[in-house]
Predict the structure.
Amino acid sequence: MSDSVVGVLAFFKPALNYSLRYSDGISTRPGVRVKSVVQNMSPSVSFMFAERITLTYSPSYSWYSSDALNDKVSHRVSAKAGGEFGRFDVGMTQGYSRTSELLLETGLQTDQESWATTLTASTPVLEKSSLEWNVGRNTRSASAFTDVVSWSSILWFRHKMKEGLGMLIGAGGGYNEIDPGADTDSQQVTGGLNWLPGPRLSVDLTAGFDRTYFRGSRRGAITNPVYNASARYRLFETTSVSLGVSRSILAAYYADRITDNDRYSLGLSQRLFGRFNLGLGASLGSTRYVGRSLSSTVPARSDRYSSYSAALGTHLKDQVSITVSWQRGESESNVQDFTYDSSSWGLSLGWRF
């Protein structure tokens, strides 16, 4: 291969993924489930410029054998850029997506369009410390559900205590413009640790609290703990275990609601016979829908869900991969139409330069 071709491919990276899956228990609307064969074709291409700017575009084509589901084309675009200005490292990410996904929260195939913008700036303040400021603006427009424009800002203080151990403290807030429905304000205070005691174990932890207010409501602040913790341990050269725990507060797809979300996950990765990769996973979670008013006539909803998965894959060549997968999911809700169980089997092929 000539040097000019290698140079072009160094910043032009194409990929292609195809999956064929059979699923039962797919929700076409709350309380209605169908079976379907699902095919998905996802080409993607990434460009890199001057080692500081990356642009990725990935359309996705989905076909369903069930007439109750609509074949759709989705689009995802992301851009990243960074640089140095004096003592500051600055960065920007911009994302756009237009999708039609089967969402647990809505119980149906939901068309939505999203924009996400994040700006970051960091600077050293002491020998082992730095300040980092993040500002973000996200928009979500969903057919038949709420449209949300979110603004957020958080300031982080990071300090390296010793080799393999760092701490961080952050404070910030956000504002959600919601249509239809009441707008919300929120404030967060968070602290955390990054721990890397050796080559086998890594731990990341952040924890704090969130205070959310519905504008125009007499309810007052809704205060909840929030946290995000992950750990990965390599038992052997070919075996690793991962653990994740999180709690978050998000704007719901329904007017005058926020969601209080818990999630716990466990994963096992095992290399077999030198060329196969086995992945096993399990997750548990819950979502509680918190309303603007304590006396709301709309019934409060609470969902509990679990999922289990297994995947076995290998590389046929350096750039070609094949994976066989299985997944089962269950959800219990105090609103009967959102109680379900489903399972699926799938085969996927991937090519990446």
In short: The chain has one domain: 3-352. Residues 3-11 form the longest helix (9 residues). Helices lie at 3-11.
